[in-house]
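Hello,

Our lab assistant flagged a job as stuck in the queue for most of the afternoon. It eventually completed. Since we weren't sure the result was trustworthy after the delay, we are filing this so someone can double-check. Below is the sequence as submitted and the structure that was eventually returned. Let us know if re-running is recommended.
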Amino acid sequence: MGQIIWLASYPKSGNTWLRAFLANYRAGGSEPVDINRLPELSFSDSRVRYFDQVAGRPTAGLPFAEIHRLRPAVHQLFAQARDGTVLVKTHCTLSQIDDIPTITPELTAAALYVVRTPLDVAVSFAHHFGLPMASAVQAISFPQLKSAPQDDTVAQPFSDWSSHVLSWLDAPGLKLHWLRYEDLHRAPARVFKGVIAFLGWPFEAERLRNAIRQSDFRTLAAQEAKAGFVEASRKAERFFRRGQIGSWRSELTADQVAFLTDRHRGVMTRLGYLGPDGKPAVREPERANG
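-- returned structure --
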């Protein structure tokens, strides 16, 4: 039986980019991996079919509490799927609900966590879920936030942005490597090289360069434009919308920026999303990765 390496993030923070890079690096091919094969190459802990499988019956329409009780069995299913390590995507906050962990510790080897400034998360969240910007700003600041179940996904507990980040970064005993979405844009080779080292995969410079190119935003967006993307939201025109940093500057009001920075000031400061003057500015985080 294998052990799970979680590919974790708050929604709309770069998880798909990370998975696409890992899929392309592992494949080492001359052509990009089909984005619609990503769910085959790394499991997702939100997919209904896995909950149906462990329950032995359809689980659509079950209350959240009943779905949540199935999580440890779903995680067991992932671990039993392969020997060695198993990559599993999650947007769940790392916590316990009714004494049941959202992430099963005894099946966990490690985690990769992608973080993105909540200012850009709010913008991407609004477009992805079809929400007014003001609602998205409030949503990612709501401690009890959960996703709504869909035909192919179960509800997931997100919590607010700060609580989600801290639940992973400060999880006791968890072997963790975290990376910033913004650094992926600015120095993809350096950041992804660190990911490969953390996973213990053999490093090849040419393979790294190819995987970065094969998983860049333009390549992923072109694939979606041609064949669609199975993980796209029904409420959004496209999944790969802009892939930029700093789009909040043209889409959030001054009051919305003030609300988010006030609500998430501690974590934003720690991760380098606020400058010494308390204003948004990406800089080196206060605490090193580890």
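-- support follow-up --
The delay was a queue issue, not a problem with the job. The result is valid. The two ends are 27 Å apart (CA to CA). The chain has one domain: 3-259.
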